[in-house]
Structures are given as structure tokens and as C-alpha cells.
Write a structure and sequence with these properties.
It comes from Ornithinicoccus hortensis. One of its GO terms (cellular component) is proteasome complex. By secondary structure, the chain is an alpha+beta fold. The chain is built from twelve helices and twelve strands. It has four domains: 76 residues, Arc Repressor Mutant, subunit A (Orthogonal Bundle), CATH 1.10.10; 44 residues, no CATH class; 78 residues, SH3 type barrels, CATH 2.30.30; 84 residues, no CATH class. The strands form three sheets. Strands 7-6-5-4-8 form a five-stranded antiparallel sheet, with helices on one face. Strands 10-11-9-12 form a four-stranded antiparallel sheet. Strand 2 and strand 3 form a beta hairpin.
Length: 338
């Protein structure tokens, strides 16, 4: 049995092969390239869009790979460096060896034999750097419960077993029960995540392991469905969607921490400690609860529908106090402000 979704390792291997192949076949039809690599034309376009923002350090236009395909024919440029054999310095070799060792420990990596072979070659070629890498260990701080959950989901990924989760949705402060088909375990920004097909949401979801209250590996096949696709996480776990609600918040100094603790699209910090932020919310309900909790320290500026929702909710809560807002210890205006 084989998995029905493409791993990041699979895609990286195709991209590294694709660049020198395209460089020697300028103007090739995009359909022919798709046949060569055994993927759809849309996937070739997605790969080219990714290559378009890749290149050598410097982040200037001249450092990036040039790719064009608008006329149905692919042209690639400024990519000769990636097509040449790479010569590593001592520090680079050490960093690569340590990274490969960490990668080999990640469950769900199907090319472990290839990683082991690459490690053996690097360690032999790098000499002292290879010996020094044995003194380096990568570890992520986790408590006993999270370590147990990590072990369970790793086992589920390896054996393709479905997992039952009791999961805390922090934005709603709600515990949920769901069955998931594990796809991979990831370490991102110092936290462990399980990426899985969620049968409750009928979509791919990312679960923070420190928010998994209970996990049970089921004796049920957990192979993800064909539509399950790993998410691109190079820019972080949070993924914006066109369906998200764009929310603009005005934050008083005592609430400015929101800009540092939530994924925001933009933040304007002022000298007095206040801030104005723009963020996206798939479920605006958590924004409503956040603003209520902050009282008068947060004001929703947009969208108007969310302003009205917060105003009505605050008014309904204040109706429970016979002497009005003063008895509730709240300002006379709702959390949404003016």
C-alpha cells in the first residue's frame, strides 16, 4: 500500500531534478514537462511558482530563479548555481549533518534509506565536521503528557492507524472529540504538530500536541483520502484563506500584547504603547470573545458586521445589571467602542 499524498521530501526531490532538466530544455511544452515528472500541469505551475521565489542568499531580484510559462512553454534562467555540484564548508557540512539526523527522526519520512546514505557520505567526506556533529543534539522541551502523545501519534503515522483525539480548540476554549488520519508529525517554531485528515472537518487540519488532551490509536486503517494534501508550512502554521474575515482592531497599551501573540497581517505600533492591527479570522467568534475579555482595551474598527455583533452581545450582557453599566464595572460604551 502506498500513500496517496505527496510528501515535502517527494516535492523537494522533484524540484532539484526539475531545475537542471528545464535549463537544458528551454521552451519545452508544459504538458511534456508534466508527463516527464508524472504530475499534472497544475502541479508543474505550482512548482514553477515556488521556484520563482527561490534563489541564492541576498533576496535581491538578481539572486532569484527566473521562471516563465505564460505561453504554455517553460523558460528558466538565473539557476546555473543550483545545477552545479555544491561544495560545502566545514560549518555548512556540520549544519547539514545535524539537520539530516533530525530529519531522520521525524515519523512518516519514507526516504529514510536515502537519508541514511546521504548521512554516511557526508560524514565520510567531512572528516572532523562529521565527528563534531555527534556532540550536537536537537531537542524540543515537552512535558510528560506531550511526550506520551508524541509517541502515540508517531506510532500511528508509522503504522497508518487512525487516531481519536480529545482536542482543545483554544480560540473557542472548547474540548472537541474527533477521529483523524495522521499524515505527518512536524516541529515548527519550537512546537510539535500533527498534520492529519480530520473526519469531523472533512479537511486537513494541524493539531498542536500540547493541546491534545487525550489521544487513542485505533485499530482502524488511517490512510488519508486522495484529496488530503500536506500544507505548505515554510511561512508558518497559520494559513490565510480567501474566506477569512479581515478584522481591524484598535488596541490600548494594556492590550497591545495581542499583536505579538496572534498571527497578524500588519501592526502599527505607536509611541504611547497602543497599536492598530489587521488580522484574518476563519471563525470571527474568537475575536468577539477576545474583545469582550479585554473590555474597553480593544475596539473593533472593521468589518461593520463584527462591530455590531460585539455591540449587541455587550448590550445583552449589561441588561443583566439593573443599575446599568456602572454596576457591572464596565464603561458605558460596549467593548466595540464608539
Amino acid at each position: 500500500m502506498s500513500r496517496t499524498f505527496e510528501t515535502a521530501t517527494d516535492r523537494l526531490g522533484r524540484l532539484l531534478t526539475m531545475v537542471p532538466w528545464l535549463l537544458t530544455r528551454q521552451g519545452i511544452d508544459i504538458g511534456e514537462a508534466a508527463v516527464q515528472f508524472g504530475v499534472s500541469q497544475k502541479q508543474i505551475v505550482d512548482d514553477l511558482e515556488l521556484l520563482f521565489v527561490c534563489g541564492t542568499p541576498g533576496h535581491m531580484p538578481d539572486d532569484l530563479i527566473e521562471a516563465s510559462w505564460e505561453d504554455g512553454r517553460v523558460h528558466l534562467g538565473n539557476a546555473d548555481t543550483i545545477a552545479r555540484p555544491l561544495r560545502l564548508g566545514r560549518d555548512e557540512a556540520l549544519a547539514l549533518i545535524v539537520a539530516l539526523r533530525a530529519l531522520a527522526e521525524v515519523p512518516g519520512i519514507e526516504e529514510r534509506d536515502a537519508i541514511d546514505r546521504a548521512l554516511a557520505k557526508l560524514e565520510q567526506a567531512s572528516g572532523e565536521a562529521g565527528q563534531a556533529s555527534a556532540q550536537v543534539r536537537i531537542d524540543i522541551d515537552t512535558d510528560e503528557h506531550e511526550q506520551r502523545v508524541l509517541g502515540l501519534v508517531r506510532d500511528a503515522v508509522e503504522r497508518w492507524r487512525r487516531v481519536h483525539l480529545c482536542y482543545l480548540v483554544a480560540s473557542r476554549d472548547e474540548s472537541t472529540e474527533r477521529d483523524v488520519d495522521p499524515m505527518r508529525v512536524l516541529s515548527i517554531d519550537g512546537r510539535w504538530y500533527l498534520e492529519a485528515w480530520c473526519h469531523r472537518a472533512e479537511d486537513v487540519r494541524m493539531f498542536r500536541l500540547d493541546r491534545v488532551q487525550e489521544a487513542t490509536v485505533l485499530d482502524v486503517d488511517g490512510t488519508p483520502p486522495v484529496q488530503a494534501r500536506p500544507r505548505e508550512v515554510t511561512s508558518g502554521v497559520f494559513q490565510a484563506s480567501p474566506e477569512d474575515v479581515v478584522v481591524e482592531l484598535e488596541l490600548a497599551p494594556r492590550a497591545a500584547w495581542v499583536a505579538e501573540n496572534f498571527p497578524v497581517e500588519s501592526a502599527e505600533h505607536r509611541d504611547d504603547g497602543s497599536a492598530r492591527v489587521v488580522l484574518r479570522a476563519a471563525d470571527p467568534a474568537w475575536v468577539v470573545r477576545l474583545v469582550w475579555r479585554l473590555g474597553g482595551a480593544a475596539t473593533v474598527l472593521a468589518p461593520p458586521s463584527l462591530v455590531e455583533t460585539i455591540r449587541q452581545g455587550a448590550a445583552a450582557a449589561l441588561d443583566g445589571y439593573p443599575d446599568g453599566p456602572a454596576a457591572a464595572g464596565q464603561p458605558t460604551t460596549g467593548p466595540a467602542g464608539e
